Amino acid sequence: MKNLSIVDKKIRIQGHGIRITPELKTRIAEEGYYPIALTWLSDDVTGPFSFTGYGETSPFELHHVDGGYAVFENGEFFTEATFYKKPRFFDRQHTAKGLQRAPDNTVFIDEGMSGVITPCGTALNREDSDLFKVTKGKFPYVTVACYNGLVIWPAWGCLYTKNHTQCKFCCIPGEYNEHKLLHTDTDYWHNLGETFAAAVEEIGPEIGQVSLTVDSGTLPGRDKGARVYVQVLDTIKQRLGYLPDLLYRRAVIEPPLEFEWLQRLADAGFTDIQMDADVYDAAERRHVMPNAKGHRSIDDYIRAFRKAKEIFPGEVATQLIAGIQSDENLLKGVEHFASEGVPTLVTPFLPFGHGRAWRATGEVDVPTPERMKRIYGRCAEILTKYNVPAPQFRGGVSSLAETMGRRMRRVRALTNELDLQRDLVAAV
Ligand code: SF4
What we know:
Blueprint: H1 6-14, H2 22-30, E1 39-42, E2 45-47, E3 60-65, E4 68-73, E5 76-83, E6 93-95, H3 113-117, E7 138-140, E8 142-145, E9 149-152, H4 159-162, H5 186-203, E10 211-215, H6 226-240, E11 249-252, H7 260-268, E12 272-274, H8 282-288, H9 292-295, H10 298-311, E13 316-322, H11 327-338, E14 344-348, H12 354-360, H13 369-385, H14 400-403, H15 417-427
Parallel strand pairs: 9-10, 10-11, 11-12, 12-13, 13-14
Antiparallel strand pairs: 1-2, 1-5, 3-4, 4-5, 6-7, 8-9
Helix pairs in contact: 1-13, 5-6, 6-7, 11-13
């Protein structure tokens, strides 16, 4: 165990999550960190790990040692760990319409990845009937995700959840519905522009090392939400007077039914696009995604990829999720997409939101580290064979890019002063 590489350690932790006591969580927050599943295992490897241990006993636990933090496995040191600092722009929070609560300081979310990907979660709290358990109905307009990424969620509803045909693995907790689409809230747009401007100012000269991802559930309409994504970049452009030159500006979206929407996304300033197939085999798609997405053929995705590759200057990528389909089919998909020049972000199934309920049925489980390592190894071989680089966007969860040697260092502007001081001392 002692000779594991840092990437192997990331893969091992990924299947379990990290436990953390409430006391330590408080301490981390007081020290100015943003501990929402954004654990840095070294200067250039990170991944979102749930602090709840995915609701079960995890062998991994966070400890405070020697003035810093470390992950222990069954009581033995496993790896050092640290977090992004909590940026000032996080204090600019959206408050759900009608909630009648004023925004205040950032609410720390302890639901792990669910907190990052769905920073606006609502779920009934059985103990006190508070509807807004996850974020108290507030969340940052702009979230920091892994690898120096700014993420904007212009909506937290999903058409399929509203129709009760959500994907079985969906990480968004229940009770999401169309009423919570943010683009219907005029305040949202104004404040989003203000918050993005604050983020650009706070990050300063390092802004070029930072990426932007716009993501949401599938929105109603044949554009699948592209109209709203365009509005996000238009809002930023209007507020700043320009679109910042970021590492990339990525739209994560179901392929619009009319490809003219791909052109409109590119024209708005998106450089990269990710259209997640999630499941490859047609029968498995229909079983896992009992909705319009599950009934879309892979050929439809291939057509969209080809069109997108003509239009976008950056990366056209997709995602497949391990653990919810056969490994054989997943690898067939990776190969098919790679033959089109499209990298696949291979991500392990993690039991959040609806996925938690699905796992409880016993039909699926979180893939073991050994299984993920095998899959990553095969995927790396396939991408190399087709001369396709590892996906730039890692969603935090995937270790494929790190398996292929890709690294990215945390920018100083998002690093806690305590870590900067520690680095200085280490350098002397
Ligand atoms: S995983 Fe499926 S149900 Fe969940 S947000 Fe995405 S498209 Fe909607």
